[in-house]
UniProtKB/TrEMBL annotation, chain A:
Compartment(s) of residence: Cell membrane
Lineage: Bacteria, Pseudomonadati, Pseudomonadota, Alphaproteobacteria, Rhodobacterales
Domain of life: Bacteria
Membrane topology note: Multi-pass membrane protein
Main location, first listed in the record: membrane
Keywords in alphabetical order: Cell membrane, Membrane, Transmembrane, Transmembrane helix, Transport
GO cellular component, one term: plasma membrane
Full protein name: Biotin transporter
One Pfam family of this chain: BioY
GO molecular function: biotin transmembrane transporter activity
Record family assignment: Belongs to the BioY family.
Residues that span the membrane, as ranges: 29-46, 53-70, 76-101, 113-132, 144-164
Organism annotation: Stagnihabitans tardus
TrEMBL record, chain B:
Source organism (scientific name): Stagnihabitans tardus
Keywords: Membrane, Transmembrane, Transmembrane helix
Keyword Nucleus recorded: no
Source species taxonomy: Bacteria, Pseudomonadati, Pseudomonadota, Alphaproteobacteria, Rhodobacterales
Pfam families: CbiQ
Entries under CDD domains matching the protein: EcfT
Subcellular location: Membrane
Protein name: Energy-coupling factor transporter transmembrane protein EcfT
Length: 187, 196
C-alpha cells in the first residue's frame, strides 16, 4: 500500500519534472515536450492501474493551478487551449500502455516500444485530435493533419520510453511492473 | 516557483475558493453559449475589467502570453480558409476562458484549492480515501522540486564531462531516482505506522 502510493506520487512528480525539459513549439498550440514521455513511462514502468493513477494525480495538481504542464501552463490553460484532448487523454494513454505491457512475458525493447506507440500515441491522439478540432474551429480531417506534425517526435519518445524501461528492468529487477524477469536475465 | 498565486493580497483572496471556482464554471459555460463576435468580446472584457480592478492586470496579461502565437496560428488558418469569424470567436473564447481561470488561480492559495478538491473528491472516498489522496498530493508537491533538482544536477554533471548533449540517459537516471526514492518513501511511511 505505502509502496504503491509512493510510486504513484513520485511518478506524478516525474511527469512534471520531465515537463521542465526545454520544449519546441510546432503548431496549433500543442508544444512538444518530454511530458508525454512521462505519461508513457508511467504506463510502462508502473503498469496500467498505478500508471493511470499517477497521471490522474499529476492532472489534479495541474488543475489546482500548479504551472506544471508543458510551457509552464496549468490545468485550466490546458482545458482552454487546443491541447485539451491530449490533457484529458493522458490517463487513458497511460492505462492502455500499461495494459499492453502485460501482453508480453518479459520487458523487451520491442514490446515496450509497441505498447508506448499504441498507448501513448494512437490512444492519445484519439482524444487529442477532436480537441484540436473543437478548440481551433477546424474539421476533424484538418485537425488530424495538423496533429501529424507531432508524430515523429512522439515516436522518438516511445523509443526513449522503451530504452529507459528495459534499462530500468535490468537495473532494478522486480520494480518494473509487467516484468517477470528482464530479457537479459534469461541466460 | 511552484504556484501562480499572487503574493499581493487582494479582496478576491478572501473569497471562498469554492465560490470562485463555481463562478468560473458558470462564466465558462455562458461564454461558450454566447453567439457572435461582439458578445464573445464582451465576455473577454469581464475578466480584463476584474484583473484591472484587482490591480493584477500586468501579471494577468503576462500569463496570457503563451496563447499569443496559438491565437495567431488559428487566426491565420481561418483567414487562409476565408472563414475569419469562427477563428476570431475561437480565439476570443480561449483567451477569455483562460483569463478567467488565471484570475481564480492568482487569487486563491494552493491550500484552499486543495481543500475544495478534496471536498469534490469525497464521493470517491470508498475508492480513494481522502487522507491517502491528501498524502499523495503532498508527496508529489514535495518531490517535484527534488526530481527537478536531480535532473538539473545530472545534466550539469554530464556537461562537465562531455561535449555532447545529454539525451535519454538523463531520462533513465531521473526515472531510476524516482523509483528508488519511492522505495525509501514507502519504507519511511511504513516505519511511521503506514498510511492506514
Amino acid at each position: 500500500m505505502e509502496r504503491s502510493l509512493a510510486r504513484i506520487a513520485l511518478f506524478a512528480a516525474l511527469i512534471a519534472a520531465l515537463g521542465f525539459v526545454p520544449k519546441i513549439d510546432m503548431g496549433f498550440g500543442v508544444p512538444i515536450t518530454a511530458q508525454t514521455l512521462g505519461v508513457m513511462l508511467c504506463g510502462t514502468v508502473l503498469g496500467a492501474r498505478s500508471g493511470a493513477l499517477a497521471v490522474l494525480l499529476f492532472m489534479a495538481l495541474a488543475l489546482l493551478g500548479l504551472p506544471i504542464l508543458a510551457g509552464g501552463r496549468n490545468g485550466f490553460a490546458a482545458l482552454a487551449s487546443p491541447s485539451v484532448g491530449f490533457f484529458l487523454g493522458f490517463p487513458v494513454a497511460a492505462f492502455v500502455t500499461g495494459w499492453l505491457m502485460t501482453w508480453s512475458k518479459q520487458v523487451s525493447t520491442v514490446a515496450t516500444f509497441n505498447a508506448a506507440v499504441f498507448g501513448g500515441i494512437v490512444t492519445l491522439y484519439l482524444f487529442g485530435i477532436p480537441g484540436i478540432a473543437a478548440k481551433a474551429g477546424l474539421s476533424l480531417t484538418e485537425a488530424f493533419w495538423s496533429a501529424m506534425v507531432f508524430v515523429p517526435g512522439d515516436v522518438i519518445k516511445a523509443a526513449v520510453a522503451a530504452l529507459v524501461t528495459t534499462a530500468l528492468a535490468r537495473a532494478r529487477p522486480g520494480l518494473v511492473a509487467g516484468a517477470k524477469e528482464p530479457a537479459s536475465a534469461q541466460f | 516557483m511552484l504556484t501562480l498565486t499572487s503574493s499581493r493580497q487582494t479582496w478576491a483572496h478572501d473569497w471562498p475558493a469554492g465560490v470562485k471556482l463555481g463562478l468560473l464554471v458558470l462564466f465558462t459555460l455562458i461564454l461558450f453559449a454566447l453567439p457572435g463576435v461582439t458578445l464573445t468580446a464582451l465576455g473577454l472584457a469581464l475578466p480584463l475589467a476584474l484583473a484591472t480592478a484587482l490591480g493584477l492586470v500586468g501579471d494577468w496579461l503576462r500569463l496570457l502570453r503563451p496563447l499569443l502565437w496559438v491565437g495567431a496560428v488559428i487566426l491565420a488558418w481561418h483567414g487562409f480558409r476565408g472563414t475569419p469569424e469562427p477563428g476570431v470567436i475561437a480565439v476570443l473564447r480561449m483567451v477569455a476562458a483562460l483569463g478567467a481561470a488565471n484570475l481564480v488561480t492568482m487569487t486563491t492559495r494552493l491550500s484552499d484549492m486543495q481543500a475544495v478538491f478534496l471536498w469534490l473528491a469525497r464521493p470517491l472516498s470508498p475508492l480513494v480515501p481522502p487522507a491517502r489522496l491528501a498524502l499523495a498530493m503532498a508527496l508529489m508537491i514535495r518531490f517535484l522540486p527534488v526530481l527537478s533538482l536531480r535532473a538539473e544536477q545530472l545534466s550539469q554533471a554530464w556537461a562537465a564531462r562531455s561535449r555532447r548533449r545529454i539525451g535519454w540517459a538523463l531520462v533513465f537516471a531521473v526515472t531510476l531516482a524516482a523509483l528508488d526514492d519511492a522505495e525509501h518513501v514507502a519504507e519511511a511511511l511504513r516505519a511511521r505506522g503506514g498510511v492506514g
